[in-house]
Amino acid sequence: MTEFALPLLFATVLWFVATGFVLWLDKLPSHTWPVSITLATVASGFAMGGIIATAEETSPWAAYVAFACALVLWGWHELSFLMGFVTGPNRKPCPPDARGWQRFRLAAATLIYHEVAMFACVLAMAAFTWGKANQTATLTFLLLFVMRLSAKFNIFAGVPHLSTEMMPDHMRYLSSYFRIAPPRWFFLASVTSIAMVAAWLADLALHSEGGIATGYALAFALVALAFIEHGFLVVPWQDTAIFRWAMPQHARNRGASMQGESPKLAPQTDTKPLAVRQNAVQ
């Protein structure tokens, strides 16, 4: 059981620190962003090298390294999106009368480059590790990609509780594409599927050995975190509170004032786009 618990702790702490670090970089003055994204790009190059170097290793340490490298790559994608470097061709608020397919098309156009870039990264990692023993990095990034897509589709369809506190000012037009509403069938299907994947990964981890077991346990931790984050979409307590330490004081003050003045946390049942929930690493 210790061999299972240690990866859970490692994944949770690393996810927490990495998410906070991305948010902190994004809240720095915009003139620092080119330097941040350049350094993140360099780090991503080393991370991809680490994934390739450990692809044939089956020891637990190799699984930890591959997992950490995958999070570095994920962090680059989140940072490039939050800073506005890789988003989509549409950077305008949703028209008030947009409904159905038009609203979906406009919403997708706000982040399609970001999604394509992440999918290309998944393909590259799969190609580099194809047929290799250590699939931890590829599995980690793929799960992050799928879980984040699930969250985005849910907040587009409508969920009871959202927060824009962590959203950069220049990205607030995104809030017009999402709505607050009672959870729908897609949310129930999402959390059920996530729970089933978590159970499957836990079973694989408990019935495997060495680095393979460690890799599955790390993947299970990410899926469990995704399940919890989906839960925050339907409960009044905002998960952004645990990342306020990563925000500069002026951003925290602004977020606090927004919490007091904005109606976005009140459940709505109409079809008007109201708010968006945007996190840096899932």
**Number of helical segments?**
9
* Main beta-sheet strand count, sense and barrel state: none
The total strand number stands at 0
The stretches of 5 or more residues where confidence is low (pLDDT under 50) are 255-282
Shape: globular
- Termini separation: 25 Å
SSE pattern, N- to C-terminal: HHHHHHHHH
Please indicate the count of domains: 1
Cα gyration radius (Å)? 19 Å
Residues in helix, %: 55-70%
Please give a handful of descriptors for the protein shown.
mainly alpha
Question: What's the short story on this structure?
Answer:
This protein is 63% helix and 0% strand.
Explain what the structure shows.
The chain contains nine helices and no strands. With 282 residues, the chain is mainly α. It has one domain (2-261). The longest helix has 26 residues, at 2-27. It is globular and about 55 Å long. The two termini are 25 Å apart. 40% of the residues are buried.
Could you give the topology of this structure?
Layout (H helix, E strand, L loop, with lengths): L1 H26 L5 H21 L6 H23 L17 H10 L2 H18 L6 H22 L27 H22 L3 H22 L17 H13 L21
Helix pairs in contact: 1-3, 1-8, 2-3, 3-5, 3-6, 3-8, 5-6, 6-7, 6-8, 7-8
